[in-house]
Amino acid sequence: MSTKKNPYSAFSLLKNALSYHENWQRAWRNPTPKTDYDIIIVGGGGHGLATAYYLATVHGITNVAVLEKGYLGGGNTARNTTIIRSNYLWDEAAQLYELSLKLWEGLTQELNFNVMFSQRGVLNLGHNLQDMRDIERRVNANRLNGIDGEVLSPADIKHIAPLLNVSPDARYPVLGASWQPRGGTARHDAVAWGYARAADALGVDLIQQTEVTGLRRQKGAIVGVETTHGFIGANKVGCVTAGNSGVMAAMAGLKLPIESRPLQALVSEPLRPCLDTVVMSNAVHGYISQSDKGDLVIGAGVDGYNGYGQRGSFHVIEHTLQAICELFPAFSRVRMNRQWGGIVDTCPDACPIISKTSVDGLYFNCGWGTGGFKATPGSGFVFADTLAHGRPHPLAEPFAIDRFYSGALIDEHGAAGVAH
Ligand code: FAD
Ligand code: PYC
């Protein structure tokens, strides 16, 4: 038996609680920025932190800073409903999300940090004949790509989610669903913290409370960033600033084909375990799972207007809760505890941008819209490779900005999970 003290033992938890948490060991350093780095990542969300981690671990590039205007993982990473799946329609998207799902499957071991990845399966409901045709097409395409998927009947669905109303008299009758058993949920904070801790241990500087306010160029090429704490040099800058990508691009005189809109979610009071899978319905703009604490985690559709206010409109969540109560009559008396919003950057084809730009040394990873949490590991992996080599990773190539000029769009509106 090891005689090493376990800093996370029950006794130490109690001791730290009684000392007002003053004696916790820091999980990562709080470094003073250097004057220069090989690569600067702007944005300390899950994607930025994963990028830094893979730069260090896969490519041996550790002279890297992640600059975050707030606190690590405090953006959309903190605000999302954590649904993970890879059942996208087109080969390009399906392969990227499937890389991510495979990385999720080993992430807790890789980071030595429990990201609480729970493969409880994801149901995407169909409510009319066209939904069912789309579901069948998508499941067939997934299987051709080696991605798990089945088309389920209402009786199969009832077996998996007994509280779901599959009566043909329902206002939104459930005609069937796609089912991805390897899908599920993870703990959003843990993903950010796991990547942060591992990247820091490899020498990456994680610099919080430092906003990038400008991009400095010489002879057209990037030489560093202006921040609220002064200039920091780097010849490569990767912007991973979900919700603010348009603002970042404008600093370089670029315009991205992106709209920024509020997306809301809410959680209920905790209940006893009653739903051990994820249920999504794109048609009715609602999706639901139950957290390990017992809360129902419920998400809505995007708000109809562009903006940067992290809140959203009441009528949107009201509509979502009407739909959830119709699908799950047993939840009609459950009280909601909290509501919040995040700003999602959406592209015209509901797919991300992972790309070099026309400015030498400036790269963007953005536009994940309503569905980027599931992509966190895969996005970081391919973006790190793209930054390290100065050319797109093969899986990132179809997601370059120039698809909006060539017309090679990858329309994933049907699989996006949230209509927009
Ligand atoms: P973020 O976590 O937002 O990180 C970007 C960071 O950049 C922020 O921390 C921000 O402070 C920082 N930043 C911005 N500008 C600057 C600057 N100038 N200088 C320094 N730092 C800056 N996806 C799913 O796959 N499944 C879901 O179930 C799901 N549900 C969602 C529910 C809601 C309500 C919302 C809002 C989103 C949801 N998403 C979901 C989408 C998902 O949250 C995002 O796609 C994903 O978290 C984006 O991760 P990120 O690391 O790129 O962004
Ligand atoms: O992309 O699966 C998804 C999703 C679910 C809720 C929000 N986004």
Summarize the structure in words:
With 420 residues, the protein is α/β, with parallel strands linked by helices. The chain has a domain at 119-183 and 260-346: D-Amino Acid Oxidase, Chain A, domain 2, CATH 3.30.9.10. Helices cover 29% and strands 24% of the residues. The protein is built from eleven helices and 19 strands. An eight-stranded mixed β-sheet has the order 5-6-4-14-15-16-13-17. The protein has a six-stranded mixed β-sheet with strand order 8-2-1-12-19-18. The protein has a three-stranded antiparallel β-sheet with strand order 9-10-11, with no helix packed on it. Strand 10 (221-227) and strand 11 form a beta hairpin. Helix 2 packs parallel to helix 7 (188-201). The longest helix is centred in the N-terminal third of the chain and has 21 residues, at 91-111. It is globular. The model has no long low-confidence stretch (mean pLDDT 95). Flavin-adenine dinucleotide (FAD) is lined by residues 42-48, 67-70, 74-77, 79-83, 211-212, 240-244, 248, 263-265, 299, 342, 344, 368, 370-374. Belongs to the SoxB family. This is Sarcosine oxidase subunit beta.
